[in-house]
Design goal:
This is EAL domain-containing protein (Putative c-di-GMP-specific phosphodiesterase class I). It is a single chain. By secondary structure, the protein is an alpha/beta fold. The chain has three domains: 210 residues, Rhopdopsin 7-helix transmembrane proteins; 142 residues, Alpha-Beta Plaits; 230 residues, EAL domain (TIM Barrel), CATH 3.20.20.450. It has 24 helices and 19 strands. The strands form four sheets. Strands 10-11-13-14-15-16-17-18 form an eight-stranded mixed barrel, surrounded by seven helices. The protein has a five-stranded mixed beta sheet with strand order 4-5-3-8-9, with helices on both faces. Helix 3 packs parallel to helix 5. The termini are far apart.
Length: 632
């Protein structure tokens, strides 16, 4: 007699999974198709396992042919279930099915071989036999089902190992847990043949899959009735050069300002209405909401992109009702893919859409086209990101120094420490390219600290008094400035090299001044340790004279664009600004000084220090030391 105590709960839970699967929006991706296949095949395997066993227990009521058919179908689905779990593992690892590989060819061949063995049992006693009296017994190749299971479990673990770097640690662990659970189930099936226990372990594996990969919460964008960023990338990773989907994105113009005008609640209601409208009007499009008023729609036919764009524009000319007597008027800015762009680089295209949606907010154009040049830029940024990570991790970020000259006698008085990173060929990567990337990937704090330490080491190793060098300016990024332990870390570095704090001036930008409370607290704490602060790039962003007046800066550095604009159209604004700063007891530095005319003009309006290519471009630290070593 067999024990059926696990069977009914298995059926009930699988049924709940099926209902839940179809009750929620699902991405049209391989992973979801694989999960559905696993559920259906497992359901069929349990069904035939249960009823073939019941039929054997009541064999007097069934012909040997019926018993053979029921048991043969069980083994067919048993092997299919093994293969289905392997395919899910492949899809979760991101293996492309269209690409032929040794693992794929071999695994499919093995699957067909063992399925052929199972099917042949309809006619021959291969895995099992049924006597004329209806008695079931194992045949010579019964253990082939365990050979099949062992093969696909081993191949699953190989697949996880090969693609582990593409997955996050949680996904790696989940896939390992799924296959290990299946392995335990097969072992117990061998040890406890009278218990229908294997189905319990496949169910546990399915539950792990659902929690880790198939939970709708992982892919839905809150209340927007659309998919999120994770889902967006999951879909795009499946595209290749043979695909030409419709992809159209748009961002609501001035979204953050509109949230203040209409209130967050009403704008959220508007977002929900937009998603509902598109769900009704374009049910065949896959809808994504990427937060901050950014939408992307993906369909099959890219020839309909312009038509869709026109229809969306027409709809947005009307208002969206966000509540009683509340009408919201919104303007979309579009991002679309150029027709000649190949989806062979689908991941880069996905990233370029994000970049395009961000850029669209800043531009006056109502439409941005992503072309091959855009993808080249994305590819370049990915490469720069790798260079930044390698340079920071191996402490190979170089310090260059650009001199700050006194306007009184044009002699060296200070220098600014500037980070430089080289590519694999030894060429310098422009800071304007790698600094934003370092800020985005979180490396800027470590990079900034390395610059601070190199500046301290330079002061320790060289006779800066002989150079006429009174201080070195070191830049602090807004992210770095948020560190609560910044003062302790910098103070310990000063002590390590025996450098007085006044020899290092810390430059912060106006962007850092947005959170004035934090700014004041951090500056005060670091001032107590002897640090002095310089406001960098004044005039490039959040200019607020009243805040500057309250902050204990010793120097204001005029942004180079502000300086250049003065020479395009001279007026009294910049001279009056410089004099105002000097009356507030600030010294003033002019950046971007490139000609003798600029030098003389900046000196005339009252700038104390001058920095720019007229005097010197940034130099490697040792070259700077040689150039200014005998400056006295």
């Amino acid at each position: 007699m067999w024990d059926y105590s696990f069977v009914l709960p298995d059926f009930i839970i699988l049924y709940i999974f099926l209902v839940y699967f179809f009750a929620h929006p699902r991405l049209p991706i391989k992973l979801n198709h694989s999960f559905l296949r696993v559920i259906i095949v497992d359901f069929c395997a349990i069904f035939f396992d249960t009823f073939s066993t019941l039929a054997l227990e009541n064999s007097v009521h069934f012909s040997p042919f019926i018993l053979r058919v029921l048991n043969s179908f069980y083994f067919i689905f048993f092997i299919f279930r093994i293969f289905s779990f392997f395919i899910f593992t492949e899809d979760a690892c991101g293996v492309r099915r269209r690409r032929k590989s040794l693992i794929r060819i071999l695994s499919f061949a093995v699957f067909l071989l063992f399925e052929a063995i199972a099917v042949s049992n309809l006619f021959y006693d291969v895995i099992f036999s049924i006597s004329p009296e209806g008695i079931y017994s194992r045949a010579p190749y019964y253990d082939s089902i365990y050979v099949c299971a062992a093969f696909f479990i081993i191949f699953s673990f190989i697949c996880i190992a090969l693609y582990r770097k593409k997955l996050n640690p949680f996904a790696n662990f989940a896939l390992f847990a799924v296959n290990f659970t299946m392995l335990v189930g097969y072992v117990l099936r061998i040890l406890l043949p009278t218990y229908l226990i294997m189905n319990l372990f496949t169910l546990i594996a399915i539950i792990i899959i659902f929690i880790s990969f198939e939970n709708p919460v992982l892919y839905l964008a809150g209340k927007a009735n659309a998919f999120n960023k994770k889902a967006f990338y999951s879909l795009f990773l499946e595209f290749d050069e043979k695909d030409s989907p419709l992809v159209l994105g748009f961002v609501i113009n001035n979204y953050n300002e509109l949230r203040e005008v209409y209130s967050g609640k009403q704008m959220d209601r508007g977002i929900s209405l937009i998603c509902q409208y598109f769900a009704r009007t374009y049910p065949n499009l896959v809808r994504f909401y990427l937060h901050d008023g950014r939408f992307v729609f993906v369909g099959r036919d890219n020839t309909q992109t312009e038509k869709l764009k026109k229809e969306i524009s027409e709809r947005f000319k009307k208002s969206w009702s966000a509540g009683k007597d509340v009408e919201i008027f919104l303007e979309p800015k579009f991002v679309q893919i150029a027709p000649d762009v190949s989806f062979r680089t689908a991941e880069k295209i996905a990233k370029s859409i994000f970049v395009g949606l961000k850029e669209a907010e800043k531009l006056d154009n109502l439409s941005i086209m992503i072309n091959r040049e855009t993808l080249i830029t994305i590819e370049e940024n990915i490469l720069i990101k790798r260079h930044v990570e390698k340079a920071v991790e191996s402490n190979r970020v170089e310090m260059f120094l650009q001199p700050l000259m006194s306007s009184r006698n044009y002699r060296l008085i200070g220098a600014e420490a500037l980070a430089r990173i080289r590519d694999e060929e030894g060429n310098l990567i422009p800071p304007v390219k790698f600094i934003p990337i370092a800020e985005k990937n979180g490396r800027i704090s470590v990079l900034g600290e390395q610059m601070f330490e190199q500046a301290c080491k330079f002061i320790h190793d060289h006779d800066i008094d002989k150079m006429g060098l009174d201080w070195i300016n070191v830049n602090l990024s807004p992210i770095q400035f948020l560190r609560p332990d910044l003062n302790e870390r910098f103070t310990s570095i000063l002590e390590k090299y025996g450098v007085p704090a006044e020899k290092i001036h810390l430059e912060i930008t106006e962007e850092t001044m947005i959170d004035y409370t934090l700014l004041k607290k951090q500056i005060q704490e670091m001032q107590n340790s002897g640090f002095q602060f310089v406001l960098d790039d004044y005039g490039s962003g959040y200019s607020n004279v009243s805040r500057i007046k309250k902050c204990p800066f010793i120097n204001i550095k005029l942004d180079m664009e502000l300086v250049r604009d003065y020479f395009k159209e001279r007026d009294t604004f910049l001279p009056h600004m410089v004099q105002a700063f000097k009356q507030m007891k600030f010294t003033v530095t002019a950046e971007g000084v490139e000609t003798l005319e600029m030098v003389e003009a900046m000196k005339k309006i009252g700038c104390d220090y001058l920095q720019g290519f007229y005097f010197s471009q940034p130099l490697p630290a040792e070259e700077f030391a040689k150039t200014y070593g005998n400056n006295m």
